[in-house]
C-alpha cells in the first residue's frame, strides 16, 4: 500500500506540479555590446557652446564675452591660417590638458576630466568645420 501511495505521489509530482513550478530555464543570447558613439560636429557645437563659447565666442572667432579681459586673446578658429598652425594632436592636448600644456594661454582650462572622449572628438570636428 505504501508503495502505491509513493507511486501516485511521484506521478502527481512529475505530471502536474513539477512542470508548473520548475519550468525549464531558457538562456537567451546576451545582447550585443553597445556601439561606441561616433563623434560628430553637431554634438561638438553643443559642447562648444556650453563650455568654450565664453572665451572663443559662439562663432568660434575668439570674440566671446570674456575675451576682452584675456591676454593673449583666444584663438580665432574661423581663420584658416590659425587652423593650419594647430595640429589635431595639439588641439586634442589643449582641450584635454589646458592651454599651458601646448604653450598657449594658461587661462584655458583643462577639459579632460570633465568632457567624455566622444565630446572631445566632437568639439574638434566642430572647430575644424569653422575655418572658412
Describe this structure in words.
This protein is mainly α and 132 residues long. The chain has a domain of 89 residues: Cytochrome Bc1 Complex, Chain D, domain 2. Helices cover 48% and strands 0% of the residues. The protein is built from six helices and no strands. Helix 2 crosses helix 6. The longest helix has 20 residues. The chain is rod-shaped. The N and C termini lie far apart (98 Å). The relative contact order is 0.15.
CATH architecture of the domain at 41-129: Orthogonal Bundle
Secondary structure tally: strands: 0
Elements, N to C (H/E)? HHHHHH
Poorly predicted regions are none
Task: Tally the helices.
Answer: 6
CATH topology of the domain at 41-129: Cytochrome Bc1 Complex, Chain D, domain 2
Give the class from helix and strand content and strand pairing.
Answer: mainly alpha
What Rg do the Cα atoms give?
31 Å
Amino- and carboxy-terminal Cα gap: 98 Å
Largest sheet: none
| Shape annotation | rod-shaped
State the oligomer: single chain
Percent helix, as a range, is: 40-55%
Name of the CATH class of the domain at 41-129: Mainly Alpha
- Strand % is under 5%
CATH superfamily of the domain at 41-129: Cytochrome c-like domain
Compute the average pLDDT: 88
How do the helices and strands line up, and which of them pair or pack?
Elements: H1 2-21, H2 41-51, H3 53-56, H4 80-85, H5 88-97, H6 117-129
Helix pairs in contact: 2-6
Keywords:
0% strand; Cytochrome Bc1 Complex, Chain D, domain 2; 132 residues; mainly alpha; rod-shaped
